[in-house]
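Loading example: each entry is read as two labelled lines plus one structure line.
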Amino acid sequence: MLKHNSYFEGKVQSVGFERNGRKLTAGVIDVGEFHFNTDAAERMTVTSGELLIRLAGKSEWRSYPAGTAFEVAAKSGFDVKAEGPSAYLCEFL
Amino acid sequence: MLKHNSYFEGKVQSVGFERNGRKLTAGVIDVGEFHFNTDAAERMTVTSGELLIRLAGKSEWRSYPAGTAFEVAAKSGFDVKAEGPSAYLCEFL
């Protein structure tokens, strides 16, 4: 069963699903800067556009254009900035 | 602004957005078989899982695993089958 998620007054929205016992979401991040905390570790693959990411405890922003991916540790978090609406696939690890 | 779309009693859901004047959606297709009609031509890129596609007027089903894409003509349509929930990026051309 699919599940619609909406955060930050609809500026981040995703559709959650499960396959082979693994949880994933496919979503979109609108223009802006947002903070997410992680419970499980996750791999975020940018599928359209570009995301700027600052992992918890880091001062540096890194750029992840479409086709690239980054991983976030469990019980951690990250700041994300989008200069244009950008799509991602999130796999919970 | 992002827009949530839901079709087939929630078995196909997507988040629509616009970038550089082009419309896109990031979505998920749950297990099942569905038919979509196109207004504009579109390119569908499978971002997770696998979709089986039969374009309008064809008898053959073709497989599109994650990382591959297919295009559908304007004012046409296609049948899509998912054996596991699968994610896609749709770009309206």
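Chain B is about 0% helix and 65% strand.
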